[in-house]
Specification:
By secondary structure, the chain is α/β, with parallel strands linked by helices. The chain contains 10 helices and 12 strands. Pfam families: LYTB.
């Protein structure tokens, strides 16, 4: 037994409006075509294994490329968005496409297209290999320059220092992104950017909450999959507060040795992690400690996004 332990739940945590929209969209599509047409999803609908596994049980087939999708099939695009090349190939194959791209990611896509049409060289601040980054950088035919760090800013070569624009991935660390943008503005004083910050409200709210919570606890458990960008940023931010922090997919990943001597345990969850995983972690801890559970004060989120219309 771990003894008397207080569990503090971050607020907000878990599903954001974009993830909720993507999950509900795929649920609607799977139910509509159940038993009549196969439903495919390009990549994980959201970066969470629990969510993906639940859809596999409903018969949804997750694929990595359009080559795996037969002509005329139903295809749902993930919350992370896709390139224009993927959209064009989907049209050529005659697919019934349902777009579950997060509206805040779509906003970034439109910014990239607008800057490109105005003759700007676009610089994208993000993490190489992330699905959102691949989709965003594929919105235009002209090359987009990827910047991942302040050091990258010093190394990039641009055709003109007077026609530059930047946009960012929606799930980055607020602090790290601010440093990169400041470096861009210092090197390229005439660079322009979006009027509103591209990092989404949910990412910002969860990062602020975990930083605040981390100052009150001995250990932080961040619930989210390893390929979830926003979950990894929560982990990094907790560690930056000099507290022990661990990223877990579920309670099954918890090593009780992590918690020995801990009197206060903080729990947060990435934007693609469902609340049931939080409750399961709390229940598991309750088997090994005398728990007192409370939710910290924080921002209430009441944002919802309209689902795409189904034919």
């Amino acid at each position: 037994m771990l003894g008397n332990v207080e569990v503090i739940l971050a607020r907000p945590r878990g599903f954001c409006a974009g993830v909720e929209r993507a999950v509900r969209t795929l649920e609607s599509v799977a139910n509509k075509y159940a038993g009549t047409r196969a439903v495919y999803a390009l990549h994980q609908i959201v970066h969470n294994l629990h969510v993906v596994d639940s859809f596999k049980k409903m018969g949804v087939k997750f694929v990595s490329t359009l080559d795996e999708v037969p002509e005329g099939a139903v295809l749902v695009l993930s919350a992370h968005g896709v390139s224009q090349q993927v959209r064009e190939e989907s049209r050529r194959k005659g697919l019934t496409v349902v777009d579950a791209t997060c509206p805040l990611v779509t906003k970034v896509h439109l910014e990239i297209q607008r800057y490109d049409k105005s003759g700007y060289q676009v610089i994208f601040v993000g993490h190489k290999g992330h699905r959102e980054v691949e989709g965003s950088m594929g919105q235009i035919f002209n090359p987009v320059i990827l910047v991942q760090s302040v050091q990258d800013v010093q190394n990039i070569q641009v055709p003109s220092a007077t026609k530059l624009a930047y946009v960012t991935q929606t799930t980055l660390s607020i602090d790290d992104t601010a440093d990169i943008i400041n470096a861009l503005k210092l090197r390229f004083p005439e660079i322009v950017g979006p009027n509103l910050r591209d990092i989404c409200y949910a990412t910002q709210n969860r990062q602020v909450a975990v930083k605040y919570m981390s100052k009150m606890v001995d250990v932080v458990l961040a619930i989210g999959s390893k390929n979830s960008s926003n979950s990894n940023r929560l982990l990094d931010l907790a560690k930056s507060q000099n507290v022990r922090a661990y990223l877990i997919d579920s309670y099954r990943n918890i090593d009780l040795k992590w918690l020995v001597g801990a009197h206060k345990i903080g729990i947060t969850a990435g934007a693609s992690a469902p609340e049931i995983l939080v409750q399961e972690v709390v229940d598991y801890l309750g088997l090994h400690a005398n728990l007192r559970v409370r939710t910290m004060e924080g921002v209430s989120e009441n944002i919802t996004f309209k689902l795409p219309e189904l034919d």
